[in-house]
Amino acid sequence: MPRLHPRLLHRARRQDPLLPLVLRGTRDLASAENELRWLKEFVTEQQKKFQSIQSWASQQNLRRLCLKRARGKPLQYIIGTEYFGDLEIACEPGVLIPRQETAASVTHLVKRLHNSGALPDHLKILDLCTGTGCIPLLASYEFMQKYSRKTGLQVLGVDVSPLALDLANRNLQRLCQDGELHFIPPRTCLHFLQGDVLAADDHKGDIPPLTTALHRHEGASGHHNPGSQWDILISNPPYISPQAFKHTTTRSVKRYEPKLALVPNSLDAKTHADNEIGDVFYPRLLDIAKQVEAKVVLFEVADLEQASRVAAMAHKQAIWTGIEIWRDDPAHRTSSEDTTTPTGVKILGTGNGRSVLLYRGDAEIWLRDPEK
Ligand SMILES: C[S@@+](CC[C@H](N)C(=O)[O-])C[C@H]1O[C@@H](n2cnc3c(N)ncnc32)[C@H](O)[C@@H]1O
Fold this sequence. Notes:
Elements: H1 6-15, H2 19-26, H3 29-49, H4 55-70, H5 75-79, E1 81-84, E2 87-90, H6 100-115, E3 122-128, H7 134-147, E4 152-159, H8 162-177, E5 188-194, H9 210-220, E6 232-235, H10 242-247, H11 251-256, H12 274-278, H13 281-291, E7 296-300, H14 304-317, E8 322-329, E9 339-340, E10 346-348, E11 350-359, H15 363-366
Parallel strand pairs: 3-4, 3-6, 4-5, 6-7, 8-10
Antiparallel strand pairs: 1-2, 7-11, 8-11, 9-10
């Protein structure tokens, strides 16, 4: 990690005695200024909420939080939340912090589906590797609050981690209490459940394989078609290869965010190529997409190279009529950046390669561009 120049630290200290601490965590002044402002706002809100807190104690608390940031702890774990689209999502150590680029893909997908004006009365959305639950929560919010209250929604988030599921359920509860989300079961509902996406269907263990978990869920919720179909499958799975984790993942992410959420651990690094380990979730997710008869699939990926490999895997399945690669900001379309891979897959938006969209059947109409 590059050292901070004393002149920069001095400049920061002149602005605010606490700024050099935050700067040690952020490594750049503009981010440090923003983060210090948010930490101050957080402490002020705490003081307002718990009026017994004296202002000297608040100042001490602010310094304590800045020291944590200096040690590299992510701001989201310190203040306990992160914005994901329009929603404020609770974050806790042990569960991956939601990223803005993920939110941009989800928002763009829902907007494009809505814009077609051709959606059915009822949609089923399955999110695998759900973490804080940010994706199903935002997708539900976008559909129900922003667009059409008419569409019936059955949404399910699945994760292997009990810590993630506990947090996802608390996020759901809080957003409902705050009035951000308003489900009217059974027409609109969202659940979280534990399941292992990678485990074989006949695997016996404490954590059920995904298919068993889905069967139990559909059975318990009184649906007639256990295991059945899901219209939309979304997943942001662990996708970082061991070498990329070692060489390119930042120290703060390595130290504070759960490796379970970042690097797939089901293959032995001695006998498998690095890319193969990073990609391991995708063939399984594609099988699941076929099994549940998904019409739309959105997978997050690390970069354009991984996106191209995933697009090639999907192409081999020979069931998708549409395959697109989206960059970080898929909504921002500049024709100079809209391009294609060597195999002819469209790459849309601006920024780094971020996700792969697949569709077929009715979804060709759901995703059509009304302007074309
Ligand atoms: C990259 S994080 C994504 C979290 C969240 N969807 C988001 O976008 O912020 C991947 C998630 O996959 C979960 N996970 C890891 N292995 C899994 C498995 N075999 N089955 C199901 N979930 C798994 C982790 O617990 C983690 O929450």
